[in-house]
Amino acid sequence: MTDMIIISGLSGSGKSVALQSLEDIGYYCIDNLPAFMLQDFSTRLPERLEASNGPILAGAAVSIDSRNKTFLSELDTNLNALEGLGIHYRILFLDAEEQKLVRRYSETRRKHPLTDINTPLVEGIQQERSLLAPLHERAEKIIDTTEMTPHELRGLVRDFAGGVLSSAPLLLVESFGFKYGTPREADFVFDVRCMPNPYWHEPLRELTGLDDAVKVFLGKSDQIEEMTREIFSFLMKWLPGFASENRSYITVAIGCTGGQHRSVFIGEKLFNLLSDKNINVQVRHRELAK
Q1: I want to staple 12 with a disulfide (CB 3.0 to 4.6 A). Which of 71, 97, 101, 262 is the partner?
Q2: Residue 84 shares a structural domain with residue 188
Q3: Residue 9: which region, alpha, beta or left (left: phi > 0; alpha: psi -120 to 50)?
């Protein structure tokens, strides 16, 4: 069955970037599709692969947001109709902090879709958040783009697309630094700041958890080994429950102070352990990508 992704979110949160990133990997994309056309559009998607030429489509993606306000009142009915027909769809919702959205609009000088002579920008953003609440609640994945670069967003969107129709959830192991904030999209957050810190060893300070010298240093720690094994055991115990709930995307965040050494090292070890168990897993190091 062709993968169908509905992209929604606040204006200025990166929906255009998300849609373009899917188009780049072979998805057929429509921006601002009227919600009442969802059922007709989805029933016309090809269900099988062409044996000689490969997939007809990698998938399809549509953007539905506050520009669709005339039709959003019947969105629940439209989505329920898809489910009644057995059509599989996934909602990806992009969010961002209000101040960041205001700054982005100030920089681009674009008009927000819900502002007018009587509605200032901040009030328009607040109205939009309320208007899109049903899509936010139904979303399979929520990505906060407040401090995210377009490059990082493209990677996360493609990771999300990669989890389509898997027999088990796509697990993303993401390292991060607490000093830069906790990933809002994380389903689980593990704090490893209590582990031995290579930062206090001058030769290792400018290296990362991907460098051999740091791997040797942290690999000697019984605490690191125990922490990694306990996180791994936790995930192995509870992942089947997520699979039974038809969750296809789960983010496990591993955090240390700066996101350079301990979280990266443990994230890589978890990735290898999970891969050995044939878990559908990817690894991402948030701070190293900056």
Answers
A1: 101
A2: no
A3: left
Q: Which residues pair with 138 in a beta bridge?
A: none
Residue 185, SS3? coil
Does residue 290 fall inside a structural domain? no
* pLDDT tens-digit readout, 194-246: 999 999 999 999 999 999 999 999 999 999 999 999 999 999 998 877 765 65
pLDDT tens for 88-115 read 889 999 998 888 888 888 777 778 888 8
Question: Which secondary structure element, helix H or strand E, spans residue 4, and what is its range?
Answer: strand 4-9
Domain CATH for 133? 3.40.50.300
- Tell the residue number behind the tokens 């697309």, with chain if given: 161
Residue 43 has pLDDT above 60, yes or no: yes
Residues 6+ apart with CB under 8 A from 72: 35, 64, 66, 131, 132, 134
Is pTM, for the whole model, over 0.70? no
131 φψ region: left (φ > 0), alpha (ψ -120 to 50), beta (else): alpha
- Each residue of 31-44: b (16+ CB within 10 Å) or e? bebbbeebbebbee
The single residue listed with the structure tokens 């506050």 is 66
